[in-house]
Design a protein that fits this description.
The chain is an alpha/beta fold and 278 residues long. It has 6 helices and 13 strands. It has helices spanning 63-69, 87-90, 103-111, 206-221, 238-251, 254-276, and strands spanning 17-23, 26-31, 42-46, 51-54, 78-81, 99-102, 148-150, 155-157, 162-167, 176-180, 185-189, 227-230, 236-237. The strands form 2 sheets. It has a 7-stranded mixed β-sheet with strand order 1-2-3-4-5-6-7.
Length: 278
């Protein structure tokens, strides 16, 4: 549990992040000084019994300390969930007291596996270094022992809101969406966003991605989603969700799979060298 007594306000963090209220009890937080095209959407959902942070950013500054400082958390238990363990989503997990991850990526997170987290950060991508002497080449995702292992169909209960875990592999082996069925909202992480979907990193799989996109299309067909809150870029509606998913399925043929395999090979060599070859 995070509380005002365990996390003291720290004014030096106040300009690192920014936040906006999306709706009652739902907030969007971003890291202001990370490259705009790569920075993630961090979602805070306040529940009647506990609060939920969905994805945690790079971790260059202490996110829960910031959230306490601006009064968004502090009086209820907080759970941090990552929609995948890529470095831009999981880098801040070690700052939280309670964390959750899908079973398929739990071991990699516990190892602090910077190959599977696709850790690849450059100085120019961080517009303001977090401290003097900071260099991107020294950035690593910390190993974290999750308090909760997630599986498809699990329910995250916040009291007045419940989110269903949807395992949607493809971008990574443990990628998930979180579905607020009552309000027909989908927190989609990196499974789908308003841009080119990435299926060429370590543990990416085109065939899995096709099946996940078909599942997304079914959610729209059944009128179970009206709004998507993605891990990157702007929110969008069900029609756009269906178009993004169906376009991926339509284009994921033999040529696409071959190109993805080549790109994954190159990315794997680059990541191995960056994290282990020096």
């Amino acid at each position: 549990m995070l509380s005002m007594s365990t996390l003291l306000p720290d004014p030096s963090y106040l300009d690192w992040f920014c936040w906006e209220e999306v709706s009652n009890g739902l907030y969007l937080i971003r890291e202001r000084f990370f490259e705009a095209g790569k920075r993630i959407n961090i979602w805070l959902l306040q529940g009647s019994q506990r609060d939920l942070v969905i994805d945690t950013g790079l971790g260059l500054r202490n996110l829960p300390n910031y959230l306490v400082s601006v009064g968004l958390i502090g009086h209820k238990p907080v759970l941090a969930v990552v929609t995948n363990i890529r470095f831009d989503h999981s880098g801040g997990l070690h700052h939280f007291g309670r964390v959750a991850v899908h079973r398929a990526e739990a071991n990699a997170l516990m190892r602090g596996d910077n190959f599977e987290t696709a850790t690849c950060l450059y100085d120019w991508e961080v517009k303001r270094p977090p401290h003097r002497g900071w260099r991107a080449k020294n950035f690593k995702v910390h190993s974290v022992a999750p308090d909760r292992i997630l599986d498809d169909g699990d329910i995250i209960n916040l009291g007045n809101r419940q989110l269903t875990v949807l395992h949607m592999p493809g971008h990574s082996r443990g990628s998930i969406c979180l579905h607020d069925q009552e309000n027909r909202i989908l927190f989609s992480g990196d499974v789908v966003y308003n841009g080119t979907l990435i299926d060429w990193l370590p543990s990416s799989d085109v065939s899995d991605y096709v099946q996940s996109c078909k599942r997304l299309m079914t959610l729209v067909d059944k009128n179970l989603v009206i709004k998507v809150l993605p891990g990157h870029f702007d929110t969008f509606d069900a029609e756009r969700l269906y178009n993004l998913a169906s376009n991926y399925v339509a284009n994921a043929g033999v040529c696409h799979k071959m190109m993805s395999s080549v790109a994954r090979y190159i990315a794997s060599i680059t990541l191995w060298w960056k994290n282990y070859g020096r």
